[in-house]
Amino acid sequence: MHAPALRKTRVIYVGTVPIGGGHPVAVQSMTNTDTRNVAATVSQITALEEVGCEIIRIAIPDMEAAQAVTAIKKAVHIPIIADIHFDWRLAVAAMEAGADGIRINPGNIGGRDKLAKVVAKAKERGIPIRIGVNSGSLEKHIRIKYGGPTPEALVESALLNLQAIVEMGHEQLKISIKSSDCLNTIRAYRLLSQRTDFPLHLGVTEAGGLIAGTVKSSIAIGTLLMDGIGDTFRVSLTRDPLEEIQVAYEILRATGLRNRGPEIISCPTCGRCEIDLFSIAEEVERRARRLPLPLKIAVMGCVVNGPGEAREADIGMAGGKGVGIIFKGEKVLKKVEASKLLEVFWQEVERIYREKAQQKENS
What we know:
Layout: E1 12-14, E2 17-19, E3 26-30, H1 38-50, E4 55-59, H2 63-75, E5 80-83, H3 88-96, E6 101-104, H4 112-125, E7 129-134, H5 140-146, H6 151-167, E8 173-178, H7 182-193, E9 201-202, H8 210-226, E10 232-234, H9 241-254, E11 262-266, H10 277-288, E12 295-300, H11 306-309, E13 315-318, E14 323-328, E15 331-337, H12 341-362
Parallel strand pairs: 3-4, 3-10, 4-5, 5-6, 6-7, 7-8, 9-10, 11-12, 12-13
Antiparallel strand pairs: 1-2, 13-14, 14-15
Helix pairs in contact: 1-2, 2-3, 3-4, 5-6, 6-7, 7-8, 8-9
């Protein structure tokens, strides 16, 4: 599969991470800790860094949270975006505390005069702003004009807010126009991409839990990326943020845009399966998401079809009655007692991973 060609957009930087202009699509997430709890927030960001999160957003509900940005930033390595609603003073304070970017909805920040103060501070410090328009926070007059949060309404709101900030002299901007409706999200971003060359942040807001959220996000974000639309995104799930990153990289892998970390292929099981494949596959996925280099790992339910169906894997395993096999291609490397299969298999995964890492270092 050929990766889609991303449309040409302007380039901005969130910290050291380039957004737009054909740079790799950046993966974001958001903490769900109390930002005022610096230790808990740093711990979660560090865990997210390990699995490939490249930009992190944190909620700023009050001045204490804004001031906590300084300590958090010193303890992590990826850029921090401060998420602000309603109070322009929190945006200014977060930037002064060291935030690498801010996310605001200009329509609810307190009026044009307050917005001007936020923009002036961002311009002074060279900090990018994400204009975040959501279907649930659309300006009243636009909602009335269109009869609701239609794609056209979202685009009009975004462009009006974009124009206001550009007129204030700041162009380090990216835009998001999120809806909880998958098809409205796709249509809105398609319309917006025809009207501006500023970089776009993709996402489906309030997408849901692991299954519903993954499906909605994969369809909306994947479709847009295949259209060449999108410069950065977050998969929003009502789950541990670590799972957002895992889903994000699977979307990028499936669209051919980026290939980070192992790809797990596994069978859906059938009546021949005599091991707890669900638990084994889940544990392999959990361990694998901390490995940054690509690797194809097969986790198969039985020896009847395992090696044949997964012959392209770098390493694979298949279960059996009381015994399993570990294979590479169609060659069986080891036979292992079922009770020890997972641990022995993972040792082989780590061995092959080290070999790949060494090959990359030597190349």
